[in-house]
TrEMBL record:
Right handed beta helix domain boundaries: 178-334
Protein known as: Right-handed parallel beta-helix repeat-containing protein
Pfam families per record: Beta_helix
Organism the protein comes from: Streptomyces caledonius
PANTHER family linked to this entry: F-BOX ONLY PROTEIN, F-BOX ONLY PROTEIN 10
């Protein structure tokens, strides 16, 4: 088995300290559009050094190895490795807080449009909730945009795990109380996160996840993909698995009125599309609230409680296949009357009623099943 090269670089100004000071070479490769190709470590010793030297539109190629560094990007660049098993951006021992006050391995900000491909972003971190916990693997904020493809984001946790609020999210997009981000995530593996796989936060923030896998931590309470506080997006042809409550989580359980549930996908914004996904082994497969969320043609298996939970709104669910769990579909009313239409939804092998309503506080929940 080949041993990954670990690059360790001491920097002073723009030079690397060896026996003599050797300054980075100026790249000579340029495309017809004027963009340049910068190579790490040939032309620059670290990814951050290449980003700092890059002009908008430049391309940064990272050779095989493990780069132990934080990377902050505030300009339009692309960064490409040699494959997610060969090129890794690894969390360093000490992390410096970014624009949101959290610690991220890669931060994209200042309205930049950034492409990351054929590489891995990996923890773990070594902080605690009181001091330096790992906030996210990749952070997108300040109106920035990420295109993440053929990549991996993994081991986004602290050692030992520090269960802090909004901590250890693999890809975290947008910010509160104001501020947005956007992302396209394609053909990417997101695994081993401590909090959530993908969080898209705030009105104006968007994300598309397609042909990707999002796999939770088997010993920690996690959520797969969240579109919350007005964020909108699409999840298609992806596999989301192993997100749920883990002992001893004191507020987690199957009671929709008094406990908290973890889900493969959670969303609360009209226009969100959840189609043609495989959703396996989560506490709740899909958990949505509101109106105008498109749920169709998903295969949902082995949810520990409910395949699809529909709360406080009006919903149409089309042609999903749900297997296992206590209930296939739960229709829940806690703040408004809730109506759900299930068109061609096939539910099998549940231990309780295939479709169950839950009502509270004078509101009604109604489910209409159509062939």
């Amino acid at each position: 088995m080949a041993i990954p090269l670990i690059r360790t670089v001491a920097r002073l100004g723009l030079c690397v300290l060896t026996a003599i000071a050797v300054c980075p070479l100026v790249p000579t490769s340029a495309a017809a559009d004027g963009s340049r190709a910068l190579v790490v470590p040939k032309d620059y010793p670290t990814i951050q050094a290449a980003v700092d030297a890059a002009r908008p539109g430049d391309r940064i190629a990272v050779r095989p190895g493990v780069d132990r560094e934080q990377v902050v990007i505030g300009k339009d660049v692309s960064i490409t490795g040699w494959g997610d098993r060969k090129t890794t951006i690894q969390a360093p021992q000490m992390l410096t807080p970014g624009d949101d006050g959290g610690n991220s391995i890669v931060e994209i900000r200042n309205g930049a449009s950034v492409s990351l491909s054929r590489l891995a972003v990996s923890g773990p971190g070594s902080g605690t909730c009181d001091n330096g916990a790992l906030g996210s693997g990749i952070r997108v904020l300040g109106g920035a945009r990420l295109d993440l493809a053929h990549a991996a984001v993994t081991h986004i946790t602290d050692t030992p795990a520090a269960p802090c609020f909004r901590s250890a999210t693999a890809v975290f997009i947008g910010e509160m109380p104001n501020g947005t981000g956007s992302a396209t995530i394609r053909d990417t593996k997101i695994t081993g996160y401590q909090g959530a796989g993908v969080v898209v936060l705030n009105e104006g923030s968007t994300a598309t996840v397609e042909h990707s896998t999002v796999t939770g931590h088997r010993t920690l309470s996690t959520d797969g993909i969240e579109f919350v506080a007005g964020a909108v997006g699409r999840v298609t042809r992806s596999t989301i698995s192993d997100n749920g409550c883990r002992e001893p989580d004191p507020v987690c359980g199957p009671d929709f009125f008094n406990e908290f549930q973890h889900a493969g996908i959670a969303a609360d914004t009209p226009g969100t599309v959840l189609q043609h996904n495989r959703i396996v082994g989560n506490q709740v497969g899909i958990y949505v609230a509101g109106v105008g969320i498109d749920i169709a043609h998903n295969a949902i298996q082995r949810s520990s409680y409910v395949g699809i939970a529909l709360q406080d709104g009006s919903f149409t669910v089309r042609r999903d296949r749900i297997q296992g769990g206590v209930h296939g579909v739960a229709v829940i009313a806690t703040e408004v009357d809730t109506n759900a239409v299930l068109e061609g939804v096939k539910i099998t092998r549940t231990s309780g009623a295939p479709v169950q309503t839950f009502e509270c506080c004078g509101f009604t929940a109604t489910a209409t099943v159509k062939p």
